[in-house]
């Protein structure tokens, strides 16, 4: 009994502060998918090494089987945030398993012989995790362990619960109050879970060799698979992953709840609390997960375990269902408690099994001890949920509830019905979904959803951090400042590449072009020799000094290549002076420097090794003899990696004055149709930010230049360094070249998502470097 | 003979390019001073340890005696630059020897018994330097080795010499040409040195026990010292530091020059080339200083050795004499050569000795073999020098020559005459000069002359670098970027405290106040609780949240205390909004945080140790019952350490609107006369940059706060860190306090030159840290 025996709905109605906090809460999701090969066979490969030890990575582990990946989101304080985390994990895992796929159904794919199903392997072959899985294999068989699903963890916000406790004038501690609250919510969930199962059940279809004995109302299909006739969820049915006997617990008080479970353990029906396969569990993350631990520490959150993987959603669950489930739990909090003794519990189990096996037929439901029609039962629940949504004036939820009401009316709109309706067959249908989802994940590989406001370089490093199981704290989003931790090892990082591994002065050296050039030159590294002038007379007088070499005359700070004159061959004093005049018309200072013929390359040097090498090519299109330049630009800009404002790894090519000018200098207009194979440049400069192409040449360029870049980074003592080199011919060593710049904050997305070439996984390289991961 | 037998004056007249380069050259000075105690006794203390090993410090060594400091400037390309270097060395050495003084005369001070004069001590007691000095002591006696003087090293610019060689159509190599040139110049110098001696001789006075036998025309004076009657330079006389026999060399050609010296060595008259105590030497710094080395490598520069210390100049020599000497050498280059055989050499030696012993009587001089009057001889030389000055239209030089002409006419205007004219006596006079010069050096201790455009912190570190004998390269003056080197150990430094010893991320953490606060708070360190706002509306809406506490409103990244409002007591929404407006006018983000009562302290932590602690007191004056606040400010601003624009360690107190407002808040006006002892604040903020006082409390504040500062630096992994702590009562541990900021680029001049308290020598601490000097 709650302290003040008031109706909570009434209290909430009158307390706006409480009402505001009602939907505050903490969310966590755990999702399992088995890995399959391209034909839908269970993958027999080991858990990918990139994820590190499954004992240590908190986000990406295995469940029962080595082939069964479990993705665990961090605890989030909103549905959006937790869903983003799940989506990111889905994208990351999909990206990293490549030649394999994530099987999108709770029922297993094509399985090998029972003995060939691999149990998860741990560092310590005698670890508790391993031994427990071996026990499960013996006790229940391996195949049934491959049922995969989603666990939904939820807690109300502490502020809300404390405010509620005060409002109810409760004398008990907050923890005792929580125990009471969550027990009430759990009971309500047990009573009403049948409807959530109706909505989310998604395992009516399975393969003939999965079950050892046929399920009730099992039917064979033309597509060589089996279906539960009118069924919704094999996984949640009595043939699913359940305790052998129904183990009812006592919901009267927290103490009685604990005592009742203790009885089952004492009787040997279950080994420990975690073997009690209830659809909802009371949990505390700060304990050893033992019953005694829970009894001692009290309930921190509840875990819902009955959600099937939704094969129609890339992430196995929709955001709508997350909201609906939260509303269901809140409704449980606010509703008056109904009795839930053994009989009621048996009836609720029966409700669940009827939905699982026969849900599409809308079987009768037991509600408050009476058997009533499915429609009546559904209406009763949805009505009480609507009251809560109305109370908080939550239009989105009301709309959502209207949709579920529609699904309640029309079983053919359930997920299960849609799965059964698909004619492709169990394996082909799910493999098609898996492949589509992989494509989507790869298209989003460059970004971390929910963090798109941060720089792409930062998103890439954060993704690698998740991949490798590091703890992440964002310290200052706007500044791209974050902290990573692996056990006791902490690293602070700003903008992906500003780390503890470079000294402050090293960054400052690179920031200062004069000092950088001086140090490089002292170390025998070619830099463009040159001189600054802010006085045209002095510049004119330097003619003799430069007359015998190819030079560039340019304004000191200019963009778009304006005001630049290049003299590759002999030139007169008049040519020279004309060039000075032009340059000075753009800036009060000009530079005359040696002209180095060639293309611009970015060498990314990390830890004294080449991490990636890009050739930067100015924005361009290649003619096909059919389309205009303008059309060719449009076509090239369709690439999903091309965006604007640095939100994507490549930038769209613009059709601005600079591009038009560049075309006209070559005798083109935007409406011209270049010949097939004709390369047309839209820019003089090769920056990626003005639509340039990034071509990965890491494996092509001569090692001479690689050694040069490594040396340049070394002389300024830099461990993460972008070295820009002009190279005349990339495959010929010791050709004309010059280092034009060292960058202390090199972009990494250009190497991870180049226009041409492979993903060099710079985020991984940085993290491995920072955390000494071999 | 020069290649084309032309008159060089004529060539120069016709070649403007050559004329422009004529005064280009490289200069170096070496100056010796013996150290004395406050009574004028030779100091018997060891060479100060702060200068490191005399074998290694290229700027500050000892000469013959352990008590005889030698200052060696780096090679500079202008008279101004070399003079600045000398002045800096003089200031540095003076500052560091403190309870001792630099004796400002070439003749020694009061000496102990011969056997107690300490010969310079080296790491290796058998080192060549030590053995050579022991040889000198045996050969010449120790006392005479204490003659101190100035060596002037000069070379023409290579560009000039090469252009001259080409103009003269010389077929010889540049080096052969140089050998010829410098031999010509040296010969001219030998012929005319008597006049330079007349101008610069400054050792006519000495103490009775100095010479073992009386000098000619020696007279006793009432002041218990001895004088050369009409004499100018004991040091340059025949009783000075000379070879026992006149060793003439052959100036006909470089080969003959070498051969003639070899003869003296072979005959045993001298031990090696360096024992040939000629007034001018031909040298090459890239050799082992042997005759064979010089013969092989050729002449690089010439060294003039006859300059006495000028006791009327703090630096022992005037800039005018540096210019005059250069002009003399140039005149030697351009003049037609006169014969200089043995007879001429003997006559030139006689000239020198006559000036040294009897110069004030203007003795006859031998010029071109004939004995003529002093006036005639001086006129001849000055006229030829004037021709050179006229050729180059150098008005300054012409003016300088007019001055020297005047001195030539009036012997009483010579330095020597002025020394003789002083009635205080040899020791008292020179001790008074020494003390005056020390005061001057200490007043300039905060700056490095010639580098005043760089930050004070940088100047201080550079001074310490000179003190400790490190090689210095200024890489980017405007950016205060420089490089230090000690043997193979190179350190790059920007702005004194940005070094290789801090990681890049550590600086970035400190730069970000939000991140810093978060990390400090996580580590249990008290920080002001607060909040950031980048939106003024959101900031306004936070009024209720902060209304009941004392707060500070400030721009997120601020300097010099600008834009900060402090509310210690109740304040209105209007006050609050006004403060927001002010803060937002300085930055797009602002911080509102709890105000911590107390004073602001800056803890400078270097290498995990406290380097200095300052209390910062807002600009203030203390009443005397007589003067107005305005007058008290003027008086306080007279402190030579107070300046403007951060050019000095303290800033002048202004009388602007902020100060007037602050006064009015206390009920004062500028024209009020505060009572005696009444402290009146002119500023709320305690920044030194707005006239605040810096009070060194390193030895006063409770260790609790010192440990706190060290811990704060440690948690952000910073090795050079300014920790700002508000402390309520500095002697009481664990009192109210909060760390308000960590600074990654802390000012160091405030600890080195505080308003009250001692110089904490932060430059030394930084260099010792960077170079692992114990």
Question: What would your notes on this structure say?
Answer:
Chains A, B: Residues 517-771 form the ATP-grasp domain. Chains A, B: InterPro entries: ATP-grasp (IPR011761), ATP_grasp_subdomain_1 (IPR013815), Gln_synth/guanido_kin_cat_dom (IPR014746), Glu_cys_ligase (IPR007370), Glut_biosynth (IPR006335), Glut_cys_ligase (IPR006334), GshAB_ATP-grasp (IPR040657). Chains A, B: It comes from Listeria booriae. Chains A, B: One of its GO terms (molecular function) is glutathione synthase activity. Chains A, B: Keywords: ATP-binding, Glutathione biosynthesis, Ligase, Magnesium, Manganese, Metal-binding, Multifunctional enzyme, Nucleotide-binding. The structure is a homodimer of 774-residue chains. Chain A is an alpha+beta fold. Chain A has four domains: 8-435, 2-Layer Sandwich (Creatine Kinase, Chain A, domain 2), CATH 3.30.590.20; 450-500, no CATH class; 531-594, ATP-grasp fold, A domain (Dna Ligase, domain 1, 2-Layer Sandwich); 599-770, 2-Layer Sandwich (D-amino Acid Aminotransferase, Chain A, domain 1). In chain A, strands 1, 2, 3, 4, 5, 9 and 10 form a seven-stranded antiparallel β-sheet that branches. Chain A has a five-stranded antiparallel β-sheet with strand order 26-21-20-27-28. In chain A, strands 16-19-17-18 form a four-stranded antiparallel β-sheet. In chain A, β11 (365-367) and β12 form a beta hairpin. In chain A, α3 crosses α14 and α7 runs antiparallel to α8 (291-297). The longest helix of chain A has 27 residues, at 174-200. The first copy, chain A, starts with 7 loop residues before the first helix and ends with a helix. In chain A, 46% of the residues are buried. The model of chain A has no long low-confidence stretch (mean pLDDT 93). Chain A binds chain B through residues 475-476, 478-479, 481, 491-494, 498-509, 512, 514-515, 518, 717, 744, and chain B through 475-476, 479, 481, 491-494, 498-509, 512, 514-515, 518, 534, 717, 744.
């Amino acid at each position: 009994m709650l302290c003040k025996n008031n109706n909570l709905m009434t209290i909430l109605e009158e307390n706006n502060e409480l009402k505001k906090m009602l939907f505050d809460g903490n969310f966590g999701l755990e999702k399992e998918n088995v890995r399959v090969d391209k034909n839908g066979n269970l993958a027999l490969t080991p858990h990918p090494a990139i994820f590190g030890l499954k004992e240590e990575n908190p986000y990406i582990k295995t469940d029962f089987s080595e082939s069964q990946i479990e993705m665990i989101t961090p605890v989030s304080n909103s549905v959006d945030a937790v869903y983003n985390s799940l989506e990111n994990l889905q994208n990351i895992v999909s990206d990293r398993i490549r030649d394999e796929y994530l099987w999108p159904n709770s029922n297993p794919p094509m399985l090998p012989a029972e003995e060939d199903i691999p149990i998860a392997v741990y560092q310590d072959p005698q670890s508790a995790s391993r031994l427990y899985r071996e026990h499960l294999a013996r006790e229940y068989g391996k195949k049934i362990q491959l049922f995969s699903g989603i666990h939904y963890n939820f807690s109300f916000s502490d502020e809300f619960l404390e405010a509620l406790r005060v409002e109810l004038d409760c004398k008990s501690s907050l923890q005792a109050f929580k125990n009471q609250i969550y027990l009430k919510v759990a009971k309500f969930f047990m009573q009403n879970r049948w409807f959530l199962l109706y909505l989310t059940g998604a395992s009516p279809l399975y393969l003939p060799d999965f079950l050892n004995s046929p399920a009730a109302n099992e039917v064979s299909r033309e597509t060589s698979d089996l279906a539960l006739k009118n069924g919704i969820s094999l996984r949640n049915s009595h043939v699913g992953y359940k305790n052998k006997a129904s183990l009812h617990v006592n919901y009267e008080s927290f103490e009685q709840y604990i005592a009742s479970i203790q009885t089952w353990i004492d009787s040997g029906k279950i080994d420990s609390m975690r073997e009690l396969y209830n659809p909802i569990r009371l949990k505390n993350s700060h304990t050893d997960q033992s019953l005694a631990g829970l009894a001692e520490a009290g309930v921190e959150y509840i875990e819902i375990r009955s959600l099937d993987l939704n094969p129609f959603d890339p992430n196995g669950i929709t955001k709508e269902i997350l909201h609906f489930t939260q509303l269901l739990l809140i409704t449980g909090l606010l509703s008056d408690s109904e009795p839930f003794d053994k009989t009621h519990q048996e009836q609720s189990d029966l409700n669940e099994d009827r939905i699982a096996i026969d849900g599409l037929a809308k079987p009768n439901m037991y509600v408050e001890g009476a058997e009533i029609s499915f429609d009546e039962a559904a209406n009763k629940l949805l009505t009480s949920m609507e009251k809560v949504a109305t109370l908080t004036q939550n239009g989105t939820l009301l709309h959502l509830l209207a949709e579920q009401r529609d699904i309640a009316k029309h079983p053919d709109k359930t997920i299960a019905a849609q799965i059964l309706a698909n004619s492709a067959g169990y394996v082909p249908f799910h493999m098609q979904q898996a492949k589509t989802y992989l494509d989507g994940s790869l298209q989003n590989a460059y970004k971390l959803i929910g963090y798109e406001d941060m720089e792409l370089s930062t998103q890439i490093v954060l993704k690698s951090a998740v991949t490798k199981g590091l703890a992440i704290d964002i310290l200052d989003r706007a500044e791209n400042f974050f902290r990573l931790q692996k056990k006791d090892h902490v690293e602070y990082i700003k903008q992906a590449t500003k780390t503890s591994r470079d000294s402050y002065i090293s960054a400052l050296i690179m920031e200062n072009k004069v000092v950088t050039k001086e140090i490089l030159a002292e170390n025998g590294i070619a830099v463009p020799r040159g001189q600054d002038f802010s006085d045209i007379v002095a510049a004119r007088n330097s003619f003799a000094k430069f007359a015998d070499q190819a030079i560039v005359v340019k304004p000191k700070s200019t963009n778009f290549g304006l005001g630049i004159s290049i003299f590759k061959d002999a030139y007169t004093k008049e040519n020279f002076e004309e060039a000075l005049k032009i340059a000075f018309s753009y800036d009060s200072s000009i530079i005359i420097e040696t002209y180095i013929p060639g293309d611009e390359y970015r060498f990314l040097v990390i830890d004294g090794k080449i991490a990636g090498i890009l050739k930067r090519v100015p924005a361009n299109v290649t003619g096909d003899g059919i389309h205009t330049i303008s059309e060719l630009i449009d076509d090239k800009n369709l690439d999903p990696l091309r965006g604007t404002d640095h939100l994507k790894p490549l930038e769209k090519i613009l059709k601005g004055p600079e591009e038009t000018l560049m075309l006209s200098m070559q005798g083109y207009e935007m409406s011209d149709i270049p010949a097939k194979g004709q390369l047309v440049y839209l820019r003089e400069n090769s920056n990626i930010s003005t639509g340039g192409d990034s071509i990965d040449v890491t494996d092509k360029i001569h090692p001479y230049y690689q050694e040069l870049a490594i040396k340049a980074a070394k002389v300024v003592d830099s461990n993460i360094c972008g070295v820009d080199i002009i190279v005349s011919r990339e495959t010929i060593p010791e050709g004309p070249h010059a280092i034009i710049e060292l960058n202390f904050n090199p972009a990494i997305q250009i190497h991870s998502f180049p226009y041409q070439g492979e993903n060099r996984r710079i985020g991984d390289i940085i993290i491995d470097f920072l955390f000494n991961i071999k």
